[in-house]
Amino acid sequence: MRLSRPALPRALRRATAGVATLAAAGLLAATAPAALAAPSPTLAAPDIPLANVKAHLSQFQSIATANGGNRAHGRPGYKASIDYAKAKLDAAGFTTTVQQFTSSGATGYNLIADWPGGDPNKVLMAGAHLDSVSSGPGINDNGSGSAGVLETALAVSRAQLEPTKHLRFAWWGAEELGLIGSKYYVNNLPSTERSKVSGYLNFDMIGSPNPGYFVYDDDPVIEKTFKDYYAGLNVPTEIETEGDGRSDHASFKNVGIPVGGLFTGASRTKSSAQAQKWGGTAGQAFDRCYHSSCDTTANINDTALDRNSDAIAHAVWTLGTETPVPPGDTYENTADVAIPDNGAAVTSTVNVTGRTGNAPATLKADVDIRHTWRGDVVVDLLAPDGTAYRLKNSSGNDSADNIIATYTVNASSEAANGAWKLRVQDVAAQDTGYINSWKLTF
Ligand code: TRP
Ligand code: ZN
Ligand code: CA
């Protein structure tokens, strides 16, 4: 409720410096003049040869064929798959660990491969479950993800990559029994080690024969990394919705580790809209051989497998080689923006570039708004994805001039890079003003 307000706005009662320049100021372009962050160079990923990925799939198929038609937990085909991948990784210079666990009365195995070097306090993980169901060889589910991650690891070795993050690749056992292997790994990781894992990338079914291109909707930075890759190919993606929590990323997500991943679809049916944008057959499952004996090397779409293998490498290179930007950088917009009296909201933008990861939990917004009755004004900070953070409400009895204040915002769920906006609205008649300047400190 508004307390008594003089009949004339204070701008007319008092000569207020700055207000006279509003008309001119309002026409100025609201570009961000100052972006002080150092660039964050990342190395470009190599092309992952499809033939190499398919050669791994042929080996997984041969292993299944020689071992009763599957590579399931507790069956000899599973251990043979572990041995195959481990031998490749050992020869390539990885430090490998086989972690044993017991499930349903059988010994299970996780394979962990560390690439020497990188910041031990910032571990980037990529993984895939290596077990099949017992009813088939599991070439799409999940030879595809296993082979894509394996060939990406081998590409790291071929490049003799010197990442900024420490890279760790993983192949999980007994996923098909309820994410058993990945849960075992996470549960046995001491909390100090857990907190060093800056991200986990999951690949489960990435070569479905009637493929969709699905990106997990989890950590925004990881998600954007995959979307950027696909944007570069001009291939549309959709958010993965065929069962969030149905693969090993859930084991990581459950303890607060940022996750992401790719998926080409399981038993769900491809819609006609999806067939239009991706090709393939509408009204048919993404993978008609899901969890069945026909999940063989014939059950793979090469284009999907090729794109997703390259996407794995893109994410590992992009997220694994980025140079951290130190805190304290500011991004400012000093262009004046007029705030119409009792009118529509106006915005001023700062473009944040060159940072890595999310915004801090203590993002500082320094706001300088000149106004003759600050109670009229509502101020929000808009993150690049449009999420609004209320900095200041209107108030009927706050008759002071100007809003010159520093607000601290927990923006830790927002990607740092992008167009941040200060949104200002004057919601009561008579007094008016302008955005003088504002800045963000990361
Ligand atoms: N192995 C998974 C499962 O059987 C396959 C799957 C279904 C999946 N939906 C998913 C994998 C969504 C990742 C995301 O449950
Ligand atoms: Zn799977
Ligand atoms: Ca007003």
UniProtKB/TrEMBL annotation:
Residues covered by the P/Homo B domain: 325-442
Keywords noted in UniProt: Hydrolase, Metal-binding, Protease, Signal, Zinc
The UniProt record lists the keyword Nucleotide-binding: no
Name of one Pfam family that matches: Peptidase_M28
Annotated signal sequence range: 1-37
UniProt entry tagged with the keyword Protease: yes
Superkingdom classification of source: Bacteria
Family to which this protein belongs: Belongs to the peptidase M28 family. M28A subfamily.
Protein's name in the database: P/Homo B domain-containing protein
